[in-house]
Amino acid sequence: MLDKSDTAEKMETVARLRDVAFAWPGRSSFSLGIKEFSLKRGERVLLLGPSGGGKSTLLNLLAGVVAPQRGSVELLGADIAILSNASRDRFRAEHLGIVFQMFNLLPYGSVVDNVLLPLSFAPKRRQRAVASAPGDSLEAEAGRLLRALGLEDNDLINGAVGTLSVGQQQRVAAARALIGSPEIVLADEPTSALDRDRQEKFLDLLFAQLSQTNSSMIMVSHDETLATHFDRVCRLEDLISTGRDK
Amino acid sequence: MTVLRLALQSLGNRWITALLTIFAIAVSVMLLLGVEKVRTGARASFANTISGTDVIVGARSGDIQLLLYSVFRIGNAPNNMTWRSYEELGARKNVDWIVPLSLGDSHRGFRVLGTNNEYFKHYRYRDKRKLGFASGGVFNDMFDAVIGSDVANALGYKLGDKIVVAHGIGEIGGNDHDNMPFRVAGILAKTGTPVDDTVHVTLGAIEAIHLGWKGGTSNSSRTFKVDEVRNMELKPKAITAALVGLKSRFAVFKFQRFVNTFRKEPLSAVLPGVALTEMWSLVGTAETALFVVTIMVVITALLGMVAMIFATLNERRREMAILRSVGAGPKTLVGLLSAEALIMTLAGIAVGVVFLYALLIVVRPYFDSAYGITIDLSLPSYVELWSLAAIMIGGLLAGLLPAWRAYRNSVADGMIVRT
Question: I need a surface site. Which of A43, B175, B215, B236 has the fewest CB within 10 A?
């Protein structure tokens, strides 16, 4: 039996990696180990490090796209390392929002279609999105998020993806990551294609939305100047030990 | 549902290539079904060249040879049958009617057939249809000729025109029976059978124009006059073949046996239906070859589709990564690409079938009049539906190749595409 403080402690931690070892199947030359990493509810962590330092692999592990060969990846109290592939995919759909560096959007479908995409794979998240939607309309919820993230032009919101600038595309990607209020948002250098002013503005709007739902965020970047926006900064090289050969 | 919607949207995003792929499949489906339709039509028309005749009798030869020269006017009879045998057969109690056929002459490349008015009464083609007259009528005079519709069209003949028959079947001059011209008394309606290419004359006239001829040349110094031969009692000594109708179809085999074992001269009797089937089986190899070619065309179209999907896989790696990031499993990606292949195959089949029927409606009258081939506009047969099902399954299986590749890419990439 867990006592109350222990439960509270658990509730506070939304992600915890312990003694993780991972190597890509068929690529024996690269292996990665993580001793310990945890993320608290509502916490914003910046992972600083160069490309090729294992950040893609770390994101894949956190998102449950791959499972470690050893160790545990606990998300929201569940060890996704021991879940089946399909269950991990489902878990990701329900509880995680993900923003890539660029090329976040499907070239077909409208802006709103792109924002609503995760809900097709996550029925519970869809319910949450409907619950917080103005007038129970998912389209309206997508529109609300897009406006909150600074994409205010109705023509753009209702238009095709191809007409958007890179900055606008990143806002759409952020709206997609936030819809249905997932507990954890993972972002892979989402601002690297934006200039300094827009980076600041983008992060402010993104964090404002995260605060509303008390969601946590892990962002990976090589840009140290962003550090002031975050609760905590980790260097990848301190976190991850990589092996280049067997 | 999501997968289906994504597949449709994705195809819509590449609509030009998708449309061309669908079109290629549609053309292959058209070809496969079209060949089948024309083949079935041709086979039916072929089998319908002659009907209503129970037995064809001629000098001893192979069944197909007898059929070829008596009905299709192809090749020559190895021998004649005597008029005496003809009369003896006609007198048998089972025989309902008998029509003599005398071949060997021609008119400007068209075969001349000596017969009598019984021919127009008893000859049947295509579901027991009688020969109809476009104009004029049957023989009223010894030197009347009734011509088939192709003869009339090709040579521009009308009723009352005089025509001269040449000896033999070549188009070599100097052998004309020009002392006795014929008058066009009737023009037959189009039948789509060899009747269209035939000049019909009376049996008596065949005898008359050969008076004084021996061994293919006119060796007589005497030239007979038309009025002179009219009064002569001309009985042919021999004819080429005879069409026989029996009172009861049950008597067919008995009659056939009687003819085949006829003592006075060696004769053959064939059942037209049996001989036609036997003959059609000769072209079976060509049919199979044609069928194989159309299958190859279908396979080519499906391969084109696979190549098209493969070609897009690389540019769609990011798309796959995005889908993975929002919670789609690798199996969903397999489903997506398979769905795309299936949608294009089904669309190709649907478009192909619609186009084919539209085309058939347009070309049908032409095929009917030009080749005598009636194309059945009925719904696809079981065989055709099975072919379509096979194409669909083929499309689905073909789609699994790029889907499997996408699956492997996705597992290897995770959700972040290495650039």
Answer: B215
